[in-house]
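OP here, attaching both records as promised.
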Amino acid sequence: MKIVAVLVLGLGCGVGWGQFDLEDSHSTASLRGVDAVGAGVAWVSGSNGTVLRTEDGGYLWQTCAMPKGAEKLDFRGVQAFDAKTAVVMSSGKGTLSKIYRTTDGCATWTLVFEDPDEDGFFDTIRKVTGRQMYVLGDPVKGKFAMFYSPDQGANWYIADDPGLDAVKDAGAFAASNSALASVGNVLMFGTGATPGEPARVYRTVPHCPELPGAGAPCSVTWVPAAVPMAGGSAAAGVFSVAGRTTLSMAGNMTMLGVAVGGNYEKPDSGAGTAAYTTDGGGHWTLAAAGPSGYRSAVAYSKETNQWIAVGPGGVDLSKDDGKHWTPLSGEAATGWNALSLPFVVGAKGKIGKLRDGVLK
C-alpha cells in the first residue's frame, strides 16, 4: 500500500516521477534483465533466481516459479518469444553460468545448458531471429566464448567462429544483458578496456566460399574495432551496444550503431560515456556531448527515431544517432540498470514504464 500511495502522489503532482510510471514488482531483487515481447507481454530477471512476467503491459507482475536449485543464481539476462516461452541466463564462474527454459509461462523450468568451461562466465543472451539465439561469454584460453541455439534455446552448441581472439585480460560486461546486439544481419558486442588497450566492439562480416555455386554456405568472421570511450581499467569500456539499419538512395543498407558505458567505479564521470558508428561498426567516434555519467544500457526507438541510454545515475536521449545526448530530469530518471522499451529495471526490484510521449 505504501508504494501505491507514492505512485498516486507522483502522478498527481507530475514532479519527480514525470517520465516513468513506477510499478509494483513484489520483489527486492537486483533486476538486470528485461525483454518486452509486445502485446503487453514482458519478462524480467534478477538476483536470487528471480524471474517476473507481465501479460497486461505492467499493470500486474507475476512472480514466476523459481528454477530448481536457482536460489543463489544471478539471472543477468532473459529473452522471451511470447507469453509462454522464455529463456533465462545466470552469470557466474563456471557452472554458475546456466540457461533455463520455460514453455508454460514460467510454471516450470528446464535446465538446458551450463558453461562447459570452469573459467567461463556468461555475459549476455540474445535472440536474433524467431528461433536463433546466441550467448556471449568472457574469454577462455584467449578467445571470447560464443554459444548458439537454433531452436529457441532448447539446445546449445559452441559457435567457434574465427576472429573472437581477445586482448589479454579483456572481457565483456554482464550489467544489462545488452553487451551483445543483433542489427539486421550483423551481430556485434562490446568489451571492456584494459590498461594500455582501448575498449572494442566486435562485429560479424560474411565469409563466403571463393567459388560461387560451390554449395558451401557462408560463415561469419568477427572483426574488432577500437572504440574511443573510457579506458585505463577493467571497470571501464563499452557496456551496451544497439543499432539500426538505414537504406541509401542507391539501395545500400548500412548499420548505424551506438555504444554506451564509461567507468562504473566513477559513475558520475561524463568522460567517454558514448560513441557511435555510421559505417556498420568499422569505425567509432566519441560522442560530441555524451551522457553525464556511466550508462549501462542503450536502445533505439524506431517510432520516434531516438536513442535512450539508462544507468544508475540517470537517463539520456539522443536525436542524432548518438552524437549528442540530453539528460532527462527527475528522481525517477535514476537508479536503472537495463531497458527494453517501454520498460526499465533497476536495483531493489525497481521497474518503471516510460510514459507515452516522453520520447516524442
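Record two, same layout:
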Amino acid sequence: MKFGLIGEGLGHNYSKVLHGLLADYRYDLLPMPPEAVPGFMQARELDGFNVTIPYKQTVIPFLAEMSDIAREIGSVNTVIKRADGTLYGDNTDAYGFRKLCEAIRMDCAGRKVLVLGSGGTSRTACCVVRRMGGTPVVISRHGENNYDNLHLHKNAAYLINTTPVGMYPNVNAAPVDLAAFPTLSGVVDVIYNPMRTRLVQQAEELGIPATGGLRMLVYQAVRASEQFTGRDISPEAATEAEAALRASSLNLVLVGMPGCGKTTVGDELARLLGRETIDIDAEIVRESGKSIPEIFAKDGEAAFRELEARIIARYSKETGRILLTGGGAVLRQENRQNLKQNGFVVHLTRNIGLLAMDGRPLSKDRATLETLWQQRQPLYQACADRVIPNETTPLQCAEKIQEEWNETLRA
C-alpha cells in the first residue's frame, strides 16, 4: 500500500514522520506545481494521500464523493482510492481541531468564540465550533468584524488563532493582546512551531487554559491513517506518536541559581536521554573569546546580558537539545519567553549553603547569594514548568527530571 502528501514547498513537514509512527506503510512527500495536480489526480497511482496548501480545494472536482464535514468546510485534506478506483475525500483537520478543543476542555455551547483569520483553517475551526454549539465570530483585516473593532467582542468566551502571526521565524509577534478579553475561558493557537507562541504564553501568564497546534497535527494524521487502512489506531498508539513528536519538538531547559548543579545534572540527563547539551555560558565564552569574569570586569554586566540574550534567542528557536542556562538568564523577560517557546523548563533548586561559588562573578558570599535568591526566585517560578530539588546525587536528580519529562510528553 502506497500513500503520501501532495502540496507545495514540503521541505519541513512532519507528515512522513507521523505516519511512520502510526502505521507500517509507504508514505512519501510529493511536492508538485499546480499544473501537475490534474495529471496526478487522474493517474490514481496511490492508495490514498493527504493534501496540504494550496490544493485542498483543487482536488475536489476529481472526487466521486466527499464526507459531510469536508463538504461543509469546502476543503479536503485526505483522499482515499476506493475498490472501484473512484476517489473519496474527507477533512480530518476537523477531527484534529476537535482534539485541540478537548485539550483545554472547551465548552462553547451557547457562547461567543472569536476566530482570528478567514482562511481554510478558520473555516475548519468555525465548522467545529458550530457543531459544538458555539457561535464563531471571524476576525479578519477587512471584514465586518476586524482588528479595529475588537472591543465589540471583549465578552468572548474563547479565542482561536488560525493566522500565521507568531509562527517561526517571527516568534515575537502576537495577533492580539489577551488583556482586552477579560472573560476568556480558553485560547487555541493552531501554530505548532514554536510549540508555545507568544499568544499561548500570555494566556498561561493570565491563568487562561491554552494550547498550541501540535495535537491537531497529530490527530488529523491519526484519522487519515485510519481512513487509509480501515483499522482503528488505539488511544495508546496515538498518545505515543504525539509524545514522540512532542519530544523531538522540545528542548529540555534547566534554570536555577549559580552553582545549583545545572551542568552536572545536565550531563547526566544527556546520557539518559541521548541528547546534546548546549551550555549557554560556555557558548558566551566561545563567542566572546573571554571568560565570564573577564567579560564582567572589562565590559560590564550589561554587555554580558546582551550577549546572553542573543545566544538564548538563537538556541531557543532550535529543538531536541538540553539547554543549560546561567543563573541570571531569567532576569530578562525576552529570555524567559524564548526559553519557554520550545522548552520544557525545569527550575533546579539547591540549598543556598550548598551553592558552588567559584568562577561566578555575582556569587561573592552567602549573603549576596541570599539576596540574589530573593530577587530571582519569582522569575524562576514564572519561567518553570517544574521545580526539581537537587538534593541527592546528580543521577538521581536527572532521573527525577526524566520522569517528569516523560509524564509531560504524554499528558
